[in-house]
Amino acid sequence: MNTNAPSVITTFYLRSSLTGQVIAEYDATGVRQKTYVYAGRTLLVQGSRVTDQVTQLRWQQINPLTGDGLQTDAQGNTLERTTVDPMGVNVGDTDPFVANEPTNGGDGEGMSQSAIDSMVAALIPGWGGPKCAIDGMITGCNLVSGMLASGAAEECLDGNCGTQQVTIIGRNSAGKIVGQTTIDVLPGQPGWNGHLDGFYSVLNTQPISFDGSAGFAAAFLRNAADPGRSGVFEAGDGAFQLSSPQKSSQSSETGECAGIRGQLVGNPFNAAALDAVWQRSQQTVKHEEGGLLGYTYGGGPVDSVFTAKSVGSTTSLEGFTTWAQKKISAGHGFVTYTFWYHAHPHDKGEVLPNGDKVGEVDFPSYDDQQVSGHVGLLGILVSRQRIVVFDKQGFIKCYFDR
Asked: Which site in 74, 98, 122, 371 is 20 to 30 Å from 247, CA atoms measured?
């Protein structure tokens, strides 16, 4: 009789003290059920207990270029084969368009055109749906999203992947334009995809004249892309600092940002996690809080919260980078982390206990950029008004109002 009572299976996992990867599984009585052998971080052999005396071995072979896989037993016999397309879908080894219907000229011959169109749409990237391209070649949009998230690719501005024009406008203290210069910027060069768009303050104590040369414009963009730790950089006779990032075509409603918005603001779990980090940062003494967002192998959401040892330092997350690297390593194969996040708890112009005045709060700091570079994830900063997403180089990708 089926009582519909839930069954519980207890499994204990043994992890490597060196890599954090699971190397064995045991049942509730302590009997080993599975073992895993790795070459680096790639699974090489899986052993499954059949009886006390018999263990079935499954050897894994993965093509590092295509991602195709082959699983064999100890005798070399094929147990399973995967052939993946650019979107990571296993499409198999047989022609999906070969029909088993009799070719007698009757109604049952072959497949209908609508059935073929439906199968083609499922297999070929961009067929009848969104189209994505890498260096001009149509490919799966999931692959493109992964490359953008990892920093291996950059999104073209307004769909134009060629040369862009960047204009630098100089204004006096009254806001009047005193000069402007427009230069051509090649793909990949600083300022090419709008990351440097914004308003910059002149820090010179003495008046300076606007330099309208192309050489100054190129130097400005080059140095703005790699400012010092304080965010100050020099170009020509001036010293500058970004005072207010400006939204470009990377809005919250179009392109890659529409997808990121859906993952963060449009996902109730992640939206709650980002709201919670702001609330925590305001408790007791204002201080930074942070964590990691991701998903399990089964697709469930994950929010790993970083617990600071103290709140004595209000403008930094001491120990966060080491903690995040350990969490990412320990979760390999079970949890995929996609973002690291933290709160900027203060308001612009607020005076800190040490006497320093808070500057722009909606812009990642040098330390924020360092964290993204070390953990290899897109960063999120949460301020009172905004959620700002930035890449591993500290360049802002998207803004969203809270």
From this structure: 371
